[in-house]
Amino acid sequence: MAAPEAVVRLGENFAAFDDLWTPKIVGQINDMQLKAVKVRGEFVWHVHDDTDEFFLVRSGSMTIQMKGRPDAVLGPNEFFIVPKGIEHRPVAEEECEVLLLEPAGLVNTGDVSPGNMTAPNGDWI
Amino acid sequence: MAAPEAVVRLGENFAAFDDLWTPKIVGQINDMQLKAVKVRGEFVWHVHDDTDEFFLVRSGSMTIQMKGRPDAVLGPNEFFIVPKGIEHRPVAEEECEVLLLEPAGLVNTGDVSPGNMTAPNGDWI
Question: Is B54 an 8 Å CB contact of chain A?
Answer without folding.
Answer: yes
